[in-house]
Each structure stands twice: as C-alpha cells, then as structure tokens.
C-alpha cells in the first residue's frame, strides 16, 4: 500500500494537469464557436452568390469563379471546425482521466518522470505533461520491468534505467487507485477492469496492454503478421490498438480509409466500432467476407459461410469435403495462374455482345481479335487490347451513325428539356458545331448500353471459362465422374445466378488475371480477424486484390467453427506455405483474459493436453452443467435464466445453428424479455439473447447458457471447436444445458471443472 502523501502528491499532479488542460479547453471552445460562426457566415454568403443573374456570359464566368472560391472557403472552414472538434474531444477525455501510467527513468544520471495517457498534452511552457501511449518512449511502460531497459528512437535503440513504474485509475479527475509495480503491467488494475460487466461496445485496453500484445501493436516490419491467440487473449483488442498505433506513427502518409478490417459479421463490426474513436482516431473501413464477395459479384448471389454451415449440418459427404479442401487450397489457385498463362493462346469463353436483339460483336469476332494478338503478350494486356479494339470499332460505328437521317430527325424533335440536358452551359462558335455535338451525344446515348457492356468486360463469360478451367484441374484423388458432377453443379448454380462459396475466390481470381482488373492499390494495411474462417484460396485472392497491403491476420485454430469438419492440420503452416516470399512474423498469445479462471479452465479441458493456454487468475463460480429430459428442458432453461438475471445484464443463450435458435425463441415466453439475433442484426441489446454460436464469434457476454449440449448435437470430435468457442464467450458465468444424454465431449472431462446438476427439480441457488 502506497503512503498517503504519495497519493496526495500524485493527486496534486493530476489537479495541475487537469487545470492546464481545462485552460486549453476554454481556448479551444472559444475557437470552435468562432469557427462555427465563420462556417455559417460563409455558407450564407455562398447561398447569396448563387442567386446572381447567370444569363450573361461574363457574369456567369465570374459567378463560377466566385462559387469555386466560396466552396474552397467552406471546405477550409469545415476542416478547421473538424480539427478543433477532435481536439476538444481529446482534451475533454484528458480532463476526466489525464493519464494511467507513470515511469521514472534515469538517462545518463538525469532523472525524469513521464506520465502516459491516451493523448499527448504539452503546456504553454512546452513541458510534456502527458505522453501519448504510442510515443516510442511509452513502450517502456508496457515492456519493461525495473532496471535497464531500452526503447527505439529514430536514431536507434536507447538504454535507460527504469526506476519506478506506477499505474493509476483516474475518474472525474480523482485518483481512484494507484499502484507501483515491477511487472510489465500489474494484475491489480487488470483484475478490476476484467471484473466489470460487459458492454454494448468493446473497450480500449491502452492502460493495461500486456507485453506480448504490445509486440503485436508495435510491429512495423512484417508484411504478414500472424497472431495465434487462445480465446479471450486480446487479439481483437491488440489489433485495434495496433491500428491506432499505425495511424499515429504515419500521420503524414496514412489515412484510416487506407486500412481495411475483415470482420466476422456485422454484429462484431458494431461491437468494436467505438475503440478507435475512444482513442481519438477515425475508424478503419470494415467489411465482412460475404459483403466483399457479393460486391465483387454484383448481381449474383454468393453463398455465405453461415448458409453453408447450416447446409452442412444436413449433409456433407466425404467426397464433397475432399473437393472443398482442394478448391480452398493454394495449389488450386496456383493452377489458375498456370491455366491463365497457357490459355492466352487458345480461344476464350467470350459472349456475343448484343445490340437491339442481334449480335453486334460475335464471340467468334472477339476471339479473332484476341487470338490475332501476339502470343507472348501477358494475358491481361491481351484482354485490354481486345477491349480497346472493340471500343475503337464501336466508335467507328458511332462516327458513321451521326450522319444518318434518324439522328437529324431526332434533333428536330428534341424537347427544350432534352436540349438543355445535352447542351448544358456549353458555348459553340457556330450552329453547325452545336448540331454536330448534339448528334454525337444522341448516338453515344443510343449505344451507351453496348459501350458499358464492353467497358465492364461483359463480353467475357468467366463462369464458362471457370468450368473450362475445372475440366483441366481434376486431382488424382478425386474420381473423374465425381469431379464432372461437381462441374455440372457449378454450371447449374450459374444458371440460377448463384456462386458456391468455395468457387467465389477462384472465379474472381481467374477473372482478374484474365482481365487485368480487380486490384486496389491504395489499401496499405489489411487486417483479418478470425483467420480460421477463411480459406487459403481466399487469402491468395486477398493478397492479389490488395497488392500493396501489409497483412495482419489473427485467430485461433481451436475456434475453427466452420471448417473443422473437413479441414485438418495446421492452418498457420498452410498460410505461411502459401506466401513463401512475404516477410512473416508470428506471435502467439496464450493467456486468456476474458473469463474467470474456472470458466477458462473448463474450456481448456476440452482441448488437447499440450495446448498452451493459461487462465488469468480471476475468481468466479464453477460452471454449471444441467441435464434435463426433453420435457423438463424448457423449465430448466427458464429457471437458469431467472437465476442468472439476478446477477447479470446480458445473458446469451447460444445454440448450434440458427434453426435451433429460432425454434427455441418461439418456445420462450415474452416475459423472459428475449431477443432473437440473426445474421442481419446490427447491434446487441441488453437482456436475454438467443443466437447461433457462429454469430457470437468474437463477442462476449456476462453469462452464457449453452443450449442443447447433447450427444446428438455435440457428439462428434469436430464439435470440440464449436463447444470451445461457445464456452469461451462467457465472462463471468457459464451454464451448459444437456437435453437427454449429455455430450460425451463433456462427460469425458474431469468433473472437478464443473458443478453437475442432474435433476431439474433442484432448487437453484
Ligand atoms: N491487456 C488487456 N487489458 C484489459 N482487458 C483486456 C486485455 N486484453 C484483453 N482484454 C479483455 O479480454 C477480453 C477478450 O479480448 P478480445 O476480444 O480482444 O480477445 P480475442 O483474443 O479476440 O478473443 P476471441 O478469439 O475469443 O474472440 C475483452 O473483454 C478485452 O477487453
């Protein structure tokens, strides 16, 4: 326990800091008021200017210039306002809690105390009252134990002596807790934070980042950073702090919209959406794989991971598994690369391009253009050259068409509105020139659909080409008849405008390689959460689609909910093998923070003995396992909900699939205040939630009830991943309800890990 005068001295330091921050805040508030009035003022003047008479040519030009100038002024004023608003927010946060850490260092005999918080604050005398947690020197706070430590500077590593490390919890400008520690970041504060109730939004963890998490956050060298972390080890938290870190260190050349996070579902996106704003940063872009694919396949319906999981529950034969394994592998994508190289000397699956119900360019004509090009040209260049030729020929046709009678007739009958829409505010030196301009516009409009079809590459039938490719790709392990049947299914799907999930990345890859398109060069960083849900083929495609992006990929192979049934072996090894040329760094997180120790140890017991997983030492009740007959199960569940509601605000009932969730929801009475969560749900309410466990990925709840953990539903060894994921969503309380016969995955565990409640008549404590 620290002495009282230490507490007083530190409180005085907090008061001084808060005082100076408040002074700055007063200035900023004033500036913000001025900026707001200025913006309003300019907007008003801008509005007046546009009312100027614009019938005279000179006036109009003048007005245009004035409008442009006003627009720039408005943009500058709005920008200034935005900047001030973000400063205001940052300072307001500092007033509440100016910092969370202090380090005392001795550098060449010179003693210095540094205070670490969410943002830097420099006072009028240029003293650093608070250092941003991302400043290079702040790494000492996270990495160092007392004694000699080093931190990176632009001139290389610097050694200093760390003599004190102090942690604070400050709220409303008052120190609530304060501890000195020799650990990297001490347990006491972490205990207090982790014991809190869950929230609709994930919290930032800057005050208590752990050493291994810090390595993830501050890695700047890897092209492919792979984080394998046990459930609840802070992977998602670390990656969000990493984004904040990267934005801070690359202010001049990196914007938040040059970063993309692939997240498992929309609920998750909502859950994490407040972390970056709480650190004063803009959010990166977020997308789910399903959204990304359906955007790239505009018009077609791409099977989602969730659809497929539900279908697999009904039937998933061994041969289908083998085909899926192959199509999702790196060698399969390599075969596409090889196919594209060789196919450029053969006819491609082109479409006839129709115009007014007759082929304008036939596929034979298009293939002739394509095949007449030099054989050694890159396939993508060849395609673009073909496209250019088609456009040139269409333009030639337009040049001929403008002189035809129908065009002159059309001009004569043009309404005033149509005339104005075509001519706009253009000026012509003569009537003839105006006539020629209008004629060209009319003809171009007439051919616009055809032009768009060429421009958007509709003349390539990539689906047929994909089937052609598949015919060349049957592996020795799969009987030809089975492979042919699969190709037939792909063709039928295509007829129905459907794309199977395992075909999606390969088709896009084939299309992009053939057409030299689909690459986004502006994205600098790409983050993939729940990496085990992605196929290697999808990673190959992502790497192709974002060629300049550095990848941070995180997940847990023990939470392999979607592919455990057909995919064995080490995911990370397969991933590394797919990208042998990338500079890779692997970090492993083995300590789990989310749940109480009894919950984590129960979940851990499911995994192979050698799994490195350590529970954070937070006390809690033993998980409960209830077994009930079918008839008594609803009653048992209701009682358990009632029992948990006394303690917690959010209780999630997790089922194996959506269908079970729907049925269960229908049988619960409205008195239970239950919400059914589905794939389209965007935010999580408080109360009792029913959802399939795959939608709960990445999320956490105060209490979890695993529903129907029975021999029939969780009886296979591949169900371990599902059950482990389910159990590790709980923070404070976990109950498993078995209906009929309890799952052998549970009965085979040492009963010391849980409290067994076999009779539902028992009065629940
Ligand atoms: N250093 C830390 N300080 C405070 N809380 C932490 C820390 N690390 C993790 N946590 C907390 O632990 C919980 C789990 O973190 P997170 O969701 O980031 O883990 P994860 O590894 O992504 O989990 P999962 O794979 O199970 O979805 C969160 O409540 C998070 O706030």
UniProtKB/TrEMBL annotation:
GO terms for biological process: recombinational repair. GO terms for cellular component: cytosol. GO terms for molecular function: 3'-5' DNA helicase activity; ATP binding; DNA binding; hydrolase activity. This is DNA helicase. It comes from the Bacteria. ATP binds at residues 229-236. Residues 18-45 form a coiled coil. Transmembrane segments: none annotated. InterPro entries: DNA_helicase_UvrD/REP, HelD_bacillota, P-loop_NTPase, UvrD-like_ATP-bd, UvrD-like_helicase_C. Residues 208-596 form the UvrD-like helicase ATP-binding domain. Keywords: ATP-binding, Coiled coil, Helicase, Hydrolase, Nucleotide-binding.
